[in-house]
Amino acid sequence: MRQPRQPLIDALRGFALLGVFLVNLRFYSLDALLDEAAQQALPSAALDHALRTGMGWLVDMKAVTIFSLLFGMGFAMQMEMRPGVVPHLRRMGALALIGMLHGTVLWWGDILLTYALVGLLLPLFRHLGNRGLVLAGLVFALFLPPLLSPWMREWVMTLAPRAQMYGNAFDALSSGTLWQAWWQNLVLGGWVRLTNWALLLFVLGRFLLGYWAGRRGLLQRPEHHLPLLCGLCVGGAVVGLMFLCIEAAAPTMKAQWPLLREGVPGYLLRVSYRVAPLALGIAIACGFALLYLRPWAERGLRVLVPAGRMTLSNYLLQSVVCVPLFAGFGAGIGPSQGLWPVLLVAAILFPLQLWLSAWWLQRYYFGPAEWLWRSLSDGQRLPMRRA
Predict the structure, then answer these.
(1) d(CA 346, CA 21)
(2) What is the CA radius of gyration of the chain?
(3) How many whole angstroms from its chain centre is CA 151?
(4) By C-alpha distance, which of 58, 6, 69 is closest to 285?
(5) pTM, to two decimals
(6) Which 3 state secondary structure label does DSSP give 304?
(7) Cβ(377)–Cβ(91) under 8 Å?
(8) Rounded-to-integer distance, Cα 289 and Cα 125, Å
(9) CB–CB of 18/322 below 8 Å?
(10) At a CB cut-off of 8 Å and minimum separation 6, what does 363 contact?
(11) DSSP assignment string, 165-211
(12) What is the pLDDT averaged over residues 103-115?
């Protein structure tokens, strides 16, 4: 039985896709692999700094937060339609296969494999009540990573330093051959997953919070949850902005009060760094839902629905286009011109994806990658073309 579509959720997923694309473009373009001195030497250094700062405040980690919440919500909806654990495990296995191919052949920054591996854990939490899901989500997202970081930091220090790994990857991707780029995909992708171990907990916490929201029908039936959505939107924005200010003031605070560097005060300060991305991501998602309920806004936002229904295909297509566009084995644009080419690519490619998604779904039931994922999950070739 095919799951009924939820236009609001699809539109929000398309909105999050744009945010993730903007974040990934800094890595596609190799700008994120440059050290600070190289970034300052670029002719557009002032503009680039402003763009990075704005992205850090408005987009970074917030878009991934929304994506992760929606993934957990999708799990809740899948469990309603197909309550067995085995179908979910097959879906995660198929997604892991797609992620491994994407991370090896196209781009080392793949997130699909991480989503698949963390997604395998979700059935373990299906017997928790709603309060248990929220509590577990907050523990994994906020409190557990800072608790483990002092011990994990010692282990991470035994691995190659970031400057060395990013420098090797930049050389291979900016001027190397296709084979060298593939090798760096393997090497850098593995190194990132080891050093960024907290990403697993980041994702799991958001999956569980999205699972809770899916159980409640928060976005499936938003008109029934208007007070809760308003409270989460306003409260998340206030809390997020407050903790952003705390993070910005943290260096000065630690200089004035050395106790904040260690012990319980240091732990609580590290926890505070993780609050803003989660709170603002929730606030943006709830604000989007409230806005979508307005007929005048829905007419404009529904343009995102087809892209949201083909998120996996669009995510992979962004790598297919952008990796050879910026890498040395392709067009070789690289980061030498600063971030303005990144904005230009986003301004051209994403509207094209919106149009292409609408055109495709008029003719086919699924996006090509979604069709492959579902066919692998079900173990049969599903019909694709509309009659």
Answers:
(1) 8
(2) 21
(3) 26
(4) 69
(5) 0.95
(6) helix
(7) yes
(8) 26
(9) no
(10) 385, 386
(11) HHHHHHHHHHHS-HHHHHHHHHHHHHHHHHHTTHHHHHHHHHHHHHH
(12) 95
For residue range 45-65, list pLDDT tens digits in order. Answer: 898 989 888 888 888 889 999
Reference 8, options 312, 213, 266; nearest CA is 213
Q: What is the pLDDT of residue 1?
A: 46
Which residue type sits at 250?
A
Both tokens of 265, joined, read 């005060």
Token output for 385: 């073309």
Residue 56 corresponds to which tokens in the numbers above? 């850090």
Question: Please, what is the end-to-end C-alpha distance for the chain in angstroms?
Answer: 18
User: Which two structure tokens, joined as six digits, stand for 246?
Assistant: 């705390």
pLDDT per residue as tens digits for the range 324-367: 999 999 999 989 888 888 899 999 999 999 999 999 999 999 99
φ, ψ (nearest 5 deg) of residue 42: -70, 150
Angle subtended at Cα 15 by Cα 11 and Cα 17, rounded to the nearest 5 degrees: 115
